Fold each of these.
Amino acid sequence: MNGVPGPELSGTAPPSLQASRVASDRLPVLVIYPVFLISGGAAILYQLAWQRSLFRLLGSSMESVTMIVTAFMLGLGLGSLAGGAASERFRWPLPLVFGAFEIGIGAFGFISMPLFSWMASQTTEAEGLSIGLIAFVAVLLPTLLMGATLPILVAYLVRQSGNVGRSVGMLYFINTLGSAIASLVASLGIFRLLGLSHTVHLAAGINVLVAIVVISAYLTRGKWR
């Protein structure tokens, strides 16, 4: 009667309804933090196994070691930049994007060792800068995906909490902790027990498991409230 539209007619939902919608779209940290912990562990297993494999295939000279490590870190850095930019443009919910990237990493992991062997057989005369280019191409796709996972999850948590510092700090801490634990496990003999190929398969299986958990949790998120 007074000419002011009620909540059901206005273009903006009441604050209580908006809060409810945010809550219904939120994954609990009890899902996000553990999966990112073991995702970080899988990433360091890949790094160690792939570097050993590439050293064996392309040589272990100082130049080869430097090129291979640089290629891995460059891919992660580029992936982080790309993930930060893409997180603002994806139309898919970010947890589903994260899950898709984890599946991509795992799929590459399952084929990576034969692929590296084939690439080495085709480039037996490579040396110097050529080794770096080969290593960069070999690990470009998975490291891009790995590097993108952190900014994607950060963007998702920031949208939920509005706290940039806490989101970045906690996710970085959790991911680094997972890497540290995996490094310890590796030093205790996981490569000796499983070998390089089976260690990579273990990491790939972890990525697929992470994807399944995150996607399932997101699709059933209403049950977490």
Amino acid sequence: MADLKKAQDFIGELRALGCKFALDDFGSGLSSFGYLKHLSVDYLKIDGIFIRELAQSPIDRAMVDSINTIGHIMGLKTVAEFVEDGATLEILRQLGVDYAQGYDLGRPQPLESLGNAHVMHR
């Protein structure tokens, strides 16, 4: 993101149209606390790098707990990426993470197979 001000303006314009935003892959790469502080988002997606070994790693558990707490203090819903097993899902429930996505919950499939209830309307 080369121009933070431009991104803020863009988010503001789309938010006025009813769009919601997520800060994806939080905690890795370019997704940082600086962006979290300055961008008006609705969801904080916790990067899978912290989720993959959550059941075995007290460090990953502490990091996910911290990211989740900060997100909630900011009024954001949190989403854990890369949930691959029931043990990980249970830890996320204990930590109070709002949403989870990953193969333990369902495999990707064509939009048509989801039925009319999930089809996006324009």
Amino acid sequence: MVKIAGLKKAYGATQALKGLDFSVPKGQVVGLLGPNGAGKSTTMRILAGYVVADEGTVQVGGEDVVAGSVATRRRIGYLPENNPLYEEMMVVDFLRFVAEVRQVPRAQQRQRLEHAIERCGLSTVLGKDISQLSKGYRQRVGLAQAILHEPDLLILDEPTSGLDPNQIVEIRHLIAELGKEKTVILSTHILSEVEATCQRVLIIADGKLVADGAPEQLGKGEGTVTVVVASRVGLTLEAGTVRSVLEAVPGVSRVETSEAEGGGTLGFALRYQNEDPRRGVFEAAVKNDLLLLEMRRQQVSLEETFRKLTGA
């Protein structure tokens, strides 16, 4: 559905994109992450045909977004971060206006309007001016105008920005539902939103793609194993000795002191990379007469991966 190759864009002396490459297959929900100024919004604006790239190619459904500008825009639904709406218009009048602008055939307008209104939960506010709506309902109107013409690709730039927790959950559920029917590219700073909604994550830093994978896979191979040990034979444990035993376990890169369970026990947090050390920890405990009271693994979170890859 989307293919981007060698994408570059500069604003004066600032190089926003430095040769971005990625593709998105049909029917996938993709989260586009990155710190402020990484190039996320620029990428989305170029993809939507709102901004022209300096170099590189962008295709939607096999059509170039510059050479086939009108054709590609017909296939795209776009919700910008600032969600521009005509506040003096009633919701229903605004959506009818969008249907006309989008050149939805007259014979299909009623059906398309009803479908968008139902999907976005707007039936109770159709007669209200947009200026009277809460931020959550304005976002719903923005989503409704983006899906009104039944696009193949939805581009959503910070769709939950400024919403309260309840509104965020509502919009998140709506996006998840839309993702069952369409290809969605979603930009957000809320990492839990990506984990709950997206099948794939693209992380951009300094205008380049630095990570690409499923949310649960990006931190795979790294994490922490927390252990609590006691002496099997009732002797007093020496923290330094036990630490040395754990440091020698294959895959363990660092050992830190952690919470224990009281007298006669010691707790440690074992950082690892690439190799799960739990089997080695168990074997080391048996070999050194240690009683393993607790062993718990926690993989690296998406937040930790994001901070690492973006230099934070």
Amino acid sequence: MLVGNAIVRRKTREINVGNLKIGGSNPIRVQSMTTPKTENVDAVVKQVDDLVAAGCEIVRITVNKQPAADALKDILPRVSIPVVADIHFDYQMAMEALKHPIACVRINPGNIGPEWKFLEVVKKARDEGKAIRIGVNAGSLEKPLLKKYGHPTPEALVESALAAIALAEKENFFDFKVSIKSSDVLQNYRAYALLSAQTEAPLHLGVTEAGTKHYGAVKSAVGIGSLLMAGIGDTIRVSLSTDPVEEVKTGIYILKSIGLKNDAPEIISCPSCGRADINVYALAEEVERRALGLKKNIKIAVMGCVVNGPGESMEADIGIAGGKGEGLVYKKGKPIKKVPEAEMLDFLMAEIERM
């Protein structure tokens, strides 16, 4: 919840997902998912590398058939972040995935089948020292719950999650996190709020099937951001119909914007107007592109005119206030150099690298 200017997070149980600690007082982790066929090993590895460069900390990979499970032996040695095997329908694929040094399996209670299949995966994960994500989804809820509630209400989603949690804990297995996603932002919020009051398990946040690059990012910012500001959430994944690198960027920006990430830059820039004499759009976009993946807790200001430019630039760690064909660069509140427009970008980025 929000106390003063800081978010106080709900205390959850700490678990290990590979070499990362999740929950408790650990940082909120940003996750994404690969899109090539898992058997296409080189394409999967290349995409994971791109995701890592953007700041991704956990990656989920589809394991839907035997060739996909077999490909894990070639993928895992070549990636540098924990891998979650994504399982639907066939519990045997989870058993196959757990033969490899994955960090976690994602199980969907709505389509994995009878309880005994879920329990087989729980026992195997427990014995192998691996984590599980219990992933409830409004689009694939168990048929008895749909019959009981009429449609995937927040209460139905919570009942599904709590049943799976009870099964896992009965087997003395506690290394799991839980997601409970809907594509409806308000339903999504209510489901997570209800669940968070009934379990100490770490929660993985997302708005499922959020949509396209722009609309989906807005839905995710509202849906994930509102939960985070309520103190709920330990990992996040932004689900967009676009390159998953955009998911990672959006997730990082959500965390940064509310003070929950301290190892990434914040870029503020003006919307430009008729007063601007430099190309603010192009400059801000390129600064953002070049700053992607930087592990620096700094605020960068890109401003187009003298109205708010000097003030915002002085308040940032580093910034530039545009003038006619030039800009004044500020660092730690003091002007350091007037730079021609053609040299602004390179000069600004060089100063950022030195910080």
